[in-house]
Amino acid sequence: xxxxxxxxxxxxxxxxxxxxxxxxxxxxxxxxxxxxxxxxxxxxxxxxxxxxxxxxxxxxxxxxxxxxxxxxxxxxxxxxxxxxxxxxxxxxxxxxxxxxxxxxxxxxxxxxxxxxxxxxxxxxxxxxxxxxxxxxxxxxxxxxxxxxxxxxxxxxxxxxxxxxxxxxxxxxxxxxxxxxxxxxxxxxxxxxxxxxxxxxxxxxxxxxxxxxxxxxxxxxxxxxxxxxxxxxxxxxxxxxxxxxxxxxxxxxxxxxxxxxxxxxxxxxxxxxxxxxxxxxxxxxxxxxxxxxxxxxxxxxxxxxxxxxxxxxxxxxxxxxxxxxxxxxxxxxxxxxxxxxxxxxxxxxxxxxxxxxxxxxxxx
Length: 363
Prior knowledge:
Blueprint: H1 6-14, H2 19-35, H3 42-58, E1 64-69, H4 75-84, H5 93-99, E2 104-111, E3 120-127, H6 135-139, E4 155-163, H7 174-188, E5 194-197, H8 204-217, H9 227-237, H10 241-249, H11 258-278, E6 280-281, E7 284-285, H12 288-295, E8 299-304, H13 311-317, E9 321-326, H14 331-341, H15 348-361
């Protein structure tokens, strides 16, 4: 096969001081230029692929060090992690202090050539049950006592995973990091029994608004809402349900109204279950976060109502979040079934919501 000449140039650069870091930034620029349609075509895709493969070799698990962050870590590390937080932005230093304090753990991978420099960061909450709301993790004050009551810690919740280097997108760091952190936590807390994420659902509102728009054009029953739901929404808002729903979900104000939130709970939970379980891209889950956890062998375990009531949470995913649960003895089999047969392992709650959606829409 023909090998592009720049491959040997990249290889040469990688051996120079700061060379690998330069190539990571080069790929980040390339990805940004592609996203903005500044450059396109097969030659650009090929260069991106070559860089990605080379970076995957240089950042394979043998070259990665796991490091834990505490409030006593170097200031620049804390600053870097706070700036890189892509899922739940860090608002203040006190906020950051809570995220590395009691009942919390924060870990990152660094490359053996640049120790202390975070590449990807995982935040974990140590709890007594599987969390159904992000507010209880990042807004709630931690217990005032500095010492953790170990007997209360039975569950580890992965609530944020952020790349600090965009040039490493698609390089398998996240799955490695979760596996390593699980081992680390098991050593520290041998009684730890449950591992789960509490994950955002990026793209859900956008997908739903597109669906509502297309259904509103078709006259007659849409299949998205039951007759009683349509009636209740129409009575509360004074307009036709589907059109009104489009307007409501385009802002975050509906979440402030107890009546509206109650009326929307059943349909949104049902639609979200279908979005995560039923909407596919080349046979795999369309939602990128779902795809990530499912290929790691997690179970689509529970969809949580009003789990993130921040502006970002309500506008991005109607306030919903999801737990992908890791049953350690089953992850290898689940991963093989998903990647090989494209079959998604889901809980009774999720399957029941999917069945309700299918019954309504007669898909």
